[in-house]
Amino acid sequence: MYSEFVQKFFSPQTAGNWFKDLNPLTKLNLLLVLAFTALVAQSIPCALGLCLFYYLLAILIGEFKYFSGIFSKLLITVGLFMVILRQFTVKGETVLFDLFGWNWTLEGLLNGLKVGGIILGFSGAIILFYASTEMRDLMYTLEQKGVPHTTSYIILASFQTIVDLKASVQTIFESQKARGIEVEGSLLTRAKAFFPVISPLMLGAIASAEEKSIAMDARAFSIDTPHTFLRELRVVPGWEKALNLAADLAFVAFCVWRLLNIFVL
Amino acid sequence: MNSKGMDKLTLFLIPIGVAVNFIGGQIAILLRLPLYLDSIGTIVVGALCGGIPGVIVGVISNVLNSITSPVTLFYAILSIIFALSAAFCSKHKVFLSLPKTILFSIWFAFVGGGLGACITWLLFSFDFGTITASMFAIPLYEVFGIPKFWAQFISEFTMDLLDKSVSLVLVFFILKSMPTRFLAKLPLGEIYVKEEY
User: Fold this and answer.
1) Predicted TM-score of the model (pTM)
2) Interface of B with A in 63-122 (CB under 8 A)
3) Fold designation for B8-192
């Protein structure tokens, strides 16, 4: 059993999914190309097509629940909100229907769909990247490209510190309430309650930074020698590099075509 | 970023600054305050450790925020300016005086609200964008006839003025309550070391 456990660290760590197992930088490049395509295209069909593609990809990589959880919220807060907002701000002539005396126009609807679609087309790609990539894999890849290990520490420690401080906030909040600090009432009363919550949190966190600094130094954090890694990623195959290049070239070509359309044709 | 160029304590303060940016917003929600309070960590680290560590805190905060709201990536420039401004204010001893701190909140509000409004304007195809600002901007545009851009600018600036005033007052008290033993180890900490030492 132990040898099986040890053996799995000798081979590259894979998720068993073709997209998830792409190199993190390849995924970042491909999804950024899609994100910026939504911005450059400025078209409703392109944005809607991209959104559908993101949903499909999320299903294929087994991250539909995570993706739709975040993306659906954006659909409402950005997509739906933009459609409603543009009915106020875009004055149109073609009335589609009357909602209790409020005329909904085609011009407002199209503008709302376009802007909402562009933002969602951009956002979906970024959410998919986070859904399909573990942060430690991204940081490992960046370290291999020459980024200092301190950067990896900062990013990964930030996630952990957020979790730790979130737990502390609740404790401090309840403690201060128990000591008689007013957390209900007028805006000023509630604003004043902010100080006794954030101050102990901040000072406690800073004290822990001091302890962490000593502890990490004792574990040779500052030693400037090549590092070893417990987790290895698969070697990037040639076709993946070619895919990256093809996506970048296609995006540049698309940008040139868009510029020609706007300024020349 | 080189670990040699940045002292160890600064390095360990960066994740805390990022977490405080998140937690500030969370406490504001817990207390039902109509404020963001999401740049306290950036300003504190900028004031204590200098511009570059503050910029790192700001950029990482924006990147982590983009996990749930990718559009925040476009606003990372604001965090960079907050951090550089905090370091500038710290070097010029602004955070030692409460009136000066409150006065400088106008600059921070101009960056967050004014420059933020310009980014929103570009991002949302030269029209209103964010939900909260639009709630104020639409009446300004519809009722008072103020042009769209200026309606957006005024509403975002006003909201940010309140937010940044509270944030900077908090930063003032946090810096004031820092133990000297700790301040002495930070690049800009000696500015805040109390007289008796």
Assistant:
1) 0.89
2) 64, 66-71, 73
3) Arp2/3 complex 21 kDa subunit ARPC3 (1.10.1760)
